[in-house]
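Sample pair:
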Amino acid sequence: MSNAKLTARSALDIAKSASRSLVSIEVLDDMSVVRIAARQGQTSTLVTRVNELHGVTLPSNTRLVTSRSGVDFIGAGPDQWLAIGPAAAGLDLAVVLTDQLQGLASVADQTDARTLVRVSGEKARDTLAKGLPIDLHPRAFPEGAVATTHAAHIGVVLWRPIG
């Protein structure tokens, strides 16, 4: 019998430690991801409430908007959004949004179901283009654009940050 021990680690550990001059991959472990779905007949009230609380209009298409509260909202489908924000100590974004949007939306924490990765560098677009079946040229995928697609049969939500 072998004395080998298995150690749990992320499949992206190599990306975290790799130093590349043309492409950089950073795993964002300090972020919360929350799915928001408007309840039937509540979309306009929900949009108004988010605007009051966060200072943005929820996008009606696959776009990204950044709020004054530091939460990014991504259009994820008809009457559905992803909210992404820092996982601050003692702050649970899903609980905050559940309280704020009570009766207007269903809110589900997706943090443990998703991995956020920032890909940057001179060859980032070329690298991503090898595995994604979408046009990443700035004319087709400008700042703030969002795409729901796949890479090697794995669902991907890709967005190009503003700024």
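The chain has a mean pLDDT of 88.
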